[in-house]
Amino acid sequence: MLPSGVRDICRGLRDNAVRLLSLRGCRLCDRDFGRICRALAGATSLAQLNLNLGVVSSPSRIKQLAEALRTNRSIQSLFLHGSPLTDAGLALLNPALALHPALVALDLGDCMLGDEAINLICGLLPPDGAKSGLKELTLSANPGITPKGWSRLAIAVAHSSQVRVLNLDYNPLGDHVAGMLAVAVASSRTLEVLDLEGTGLTNQSAQTLLDMVENYPTALRSLVLAENSISPELQQQICDLLSEGEDSKGVVENTQGSRQGQTGEAWVLTDPSSQMVLMTSGLGDSLLAETEM
Question: Could you report the per-residue pLDDT of 215-267, keeping only the tens digit for each?
Fold first, then answer.
């Protein structure tokens, strides 16, 4: 990224002129990353921050981001998809995440997480009646999480009074974990979207999910089951039940849907490697609009 671009970003953050900042895949040196984090700390207008695809690439950068988040009060959506955090890195970041007053959407997909990280993440999904927590959580492609970790997450989701969207695609969940998630969905009063694309499910899982949708009132309106060994007939039955009685009610997604943000005026800076920084005055309808890889 051009040094002048970094200066412009920092100036925009300090002037509170930026609502959305995307550094997705940018090649930042450590010095420039630190400068941006210091500017982030005092920003009061920034609502969405995209650091996907390896921008947060070391323990020192994790610490700098954590320091910024401890002071920042405005960020609602944080995307770290494709960052090599590991459990140790998330442990460094977690105190700032847990205490942030505005954070409602978090993408930790493909972050090399395991069961220890799940224990921390569950703390961001407080039980009904407790403090506010995440509304949207993405944990795609974290194969190091075991069934024990997923069961812990299922319990937290079942009792959360906030979470609306849960993306678990491309994890080797299998039928056993899917059964636990079905119980969580049946218990949750808020979960509206569940993405289980490419998670190793079979007709056994689909039958469990079908029974759940058929026999229990849920808030669920969208269930993504693409790229699993599930018959079209079972998928259609689930779709029909989710749609029953209300045309706007959710559907079973057979193909990967696109998440689109709001269009509008934007300032785009491009470095010599065609990496992009986006700053805009508006937010999309979806808090996780920037998670597409």
Answer: 988 999 999 999 999 999 999 999 999 987 354 444 555 443 333 333 333 33
Q: Which candidate, 105, 5, 17, places its Cα nearest to that of 282?
A: 17
Which CA distances in Å does 114 have to 42, 86, 89, 266? 32, 7, 11, 37
Q: What residues form DSSP beta bridges with 50?
A: 22, 79
State the DSSP code for 212: H
CA distance 1 to 124: 33
Two tokens, residue 153: 């997450």
| CA dihedral sign, ordered 75, 81, 84, 85 | positive
Q: Is residue 263 within 8 Å of residue 256, measured between CB atoms?
A: no
Let me know if 259 is exposed, middle or buried by CB neighbors in 10 A (0-12, 13-18, 19+): middle
Distance CA 165, CA 240 (A): 21
Mean pLDDT by 10 residues, the chain (293 residues): 77 95 93 96 96 96 98 97 98 97 97 98 83 92 98 95 96 97 94 97 96 91 96 93 61 43 36 42 39 37
How far from 174 is each of 97, 119, 177, 277, CA to CA, in Å?
30, 21, 6, 38
What is the rounded distance in angstroms from the CA atom of residue 149 to the CA atom of residue 207? 23
**pLDDT per position as a tens digit, 267-282:** 334 343 434 444 443 3
Strand partners, 223: 194, 252
Cα 283 to Cα 9, 20, 37, 53, 130, distances in angstroms: 18, 7, 21, 21, 28
What is the spatial distance between Cα 81 and Cα 100, in angstroms, rounded to a whole number? 19
Mean pLDDT of the chain: 85
